[in-house]
Amino acid sequence: MTAAAAPDSTTLGLRSRAEHLAAPLPPLLAEAEQLARTVLMGEHGRRRAGAGSNFWQYRAAQPHDTARAIDWRRSGRADQTFVQEKEWQIAQSVALWVDDGAAMRFASTVKLAPKGDRARLVALALAVLLTRGGERVGLADARLPPRRGAGQLTRLAALLSQDAEGDHGVPQARDLAPRSRAVLVSDFLGPVEPVEAMLTEAADRGVQGALLQVLDPAEEAFPYDGRTIFESMTGALRHETLKAGDLRDRYLERLAQRRDRLAGLARLTGWQFSTHRTDTSAAAALLWLYAALERR
Question: The organism sits in which domain of life (predicted)?
């Protein structure tokens, strides 16, 4: 009888890392499923004209409309002819990007979720809703192209649970399919130039979507006073001051300027922009994102 060989240190290390990575997945996915259930789901449609079977609205007939397209019953009740438009129901590809930078790990108190946790939860809950509606959902990079199915949600949860080493993540548009949809979730407190470049390239491809800025309430109120040490989550940046209160007005002004710039970029490229605080309902952010994808 031969005894089984003991696992070597490499195997144990790999197993430990795998278990550590997998540990947050069931709670994250379960919480996202629960959050998604707070949104009342009717039959899914994109609320614009196109190929589909459900009536959406009547419109006045145009010269290019054929006689078969005319709704003669509706037209008989008026002095002009009308055409029925159907609700657009073709599945779309929706790509998600959630900032995985270290800055997203910030929480001002232990009672609040880190920004990254809230961002992942809302993004994954949105993926649950879209998947139930028949959409293809994935990441805005080559790691996970948009697909349908419950298995895609598990893979999405796994990848969203990974953290990067830098302070701020950088979104890219090169892997976005033309005329698809995209959602970016971040604090957007890092360099704004990569976001501007990504939105510009996305717009050139006909990609539209939504930006959701997730902030801790302390980042909006700047409640600091007296001697304070400000340090980035990676420790790369550090600033000490004896009069933190003197920085409040300047900080709030720059935060407002950043929001105005993001909102302007969104308007210019046909995207939607909103902000969300981690001390408010995650359902509100989810509802806004879901509604933003319905807009053109």
Answer: Bacteria
